[in-house]
Amino acid sequence: MARQARMNPAMRWVDDRLHISGVVDAALSHPVPKRVHPLDYLGESTLFVFINQMITGILLAMFYNASAQSAYAFDPATGKAAPTIAWTSIQHIMSSAVPAGSLIRSMHYWGNYFMVVLVFAHMLRGFYVGAYKYPRELTWLTGVALLLVTLGFAFTGYLLPWDQKAYWATQVGVNIGASAPILGPTIGLLLRGGPTLNGDTLTRFFAIHMLVLPALIVTLIGVHILLTNIQGVSEADGLVLEGEETVIHGGGRK
Amino acid sequence: MAVSAAGSSRAVSRNRFMLAVLGGVSTVIGVFYVGTILRYLYPKSSSTPPLPVSLSDQGVTDPGTQAVLPFNNGVAGPFYYPTVPDKSVVVGVFVEKIKAAGPLAADNLRVVEQTCTHLGCPVAWVASDNRFECPCHGSQFNRDLSVSHGPANSPLYEHDFQLKAGTMTILGRK
Lengths: 254, 174
Ligand code: HEM
Ligand code: FES
Hints:
Helix content of chain B: 10-25%
Largest interface: A-B, 24 and 22 residues
CATH superfamily of chain A: Cytochrome Bc1 Complex, Chain C
CATH architecture of chain A: Up-down Bundle
Structural class of chain A: mainly alpha
Radius of gyration of chain A: 24 Å
Helix content of chain A: 55-70%
Bound molecules: protoporphyrin IX containing FE, FE2/S2 (inorganic) cluster
CATH class of chain A: Mainly Alpha
Oligomer: heterodimer
Largest sheet of chain A: none
CATH topology of chain A: Cytochrome Bc1 Complex, Chain C
CATH topology of the largest domain in chain B: Rieske Iron-sulfur Protein
């Protein structure tokens, strides 16, 4: 095979058995038009920040402890609220007891804002260039799902430090959902796991943040990227590639 | 596909029969899972249960003596009572004397939940302004609990309570 002749022996060994070099080539070395705008890379930028969130998030999970139990008993004499295990574990990450802990946590914290802003910018760009039009409707829809999942990450992650700001911001956020007509109160109870925001809410949000949403987002990103790979950059619709006679990826933009 | 005898074209094919059975069984299993998941996630209690709060924990030794809570214009600073033991579920309440100079007796007391009726932040009693104010979106409530400034659009909640031998039992929203 001509393609195999160009490969290094390790790749050839794999390809001999799995015949995947065609797929890999299609994904990684397809031609892209010269005239691509820098803003067409907002999606890739979001992906980069997501990978950062994944790495730093997994690292945070090694020290973070999602428990609303108090680290020691409430002392009525001082009247000071007893710190909870969740809050204390974050203080621990931020202290010098964990080398680079504050860096990792800050990368996750700021990465969250970067990710939300980039997802929005990426969507606005897609809207501006009309990338949601035929034949890319499904790409747009998976993109909308990704936006919602990203906001879900931001919402559930925000509660995890279990400090005053986290607690009351989530109180307000859950109550916005709970004030929806008919289903609202049920949504509130399911999210909180009780009549008020409590320790069960923390573990619930932790499970959503760490298990449900990562599985969802990885699947959605996979489909989203697969679709863009099949259809190419919408900017290039109708462009003729140098050295090629055909118009690539059929003119979708109207 | 050649369908020969008349009538047999109407018969359900083996394939479609198996699909229908499979679909039916999966639906039953699916409904079972969804039902169980919702049952699991739906909390057992959906309202705050009444829990006794010892007023001595709040600095009240004998309700008769009045030498007590730091009443400010008749409103004591909020204290928190657990609504579900060990779950750190707390609801803040103000214990108020209806007549500021009056005795600390059940008929001169009022228990006001701290929860803002907008989206649930804790309001503070601001004695200098003679009103409750919410830090989140700026709602303000008069001393009689009515709204004096939005975005909240309903009065603060009052709680029923019992006072017996220095122990106040908060019975939940009126
Ligand atoms: C993909 C987008 C993600 C977003 C937008 C996001 C967002 C957030 C936010 C806003 C916080 C609170 C940060 C803070 O106040 O310190 C947080 C905390 C946390 N996240 Fe994420 N996260 C993402 C992915 C992940 C992933 C993939 C994991 C792990 C598998 C993870 C694990 C954690 C943990 C353990 C915390 C608690 C530590 C802390 O609050 O500093 N996150 N996340
Ligand atoms: S929660 Fe009090 S003003 Fe919004």
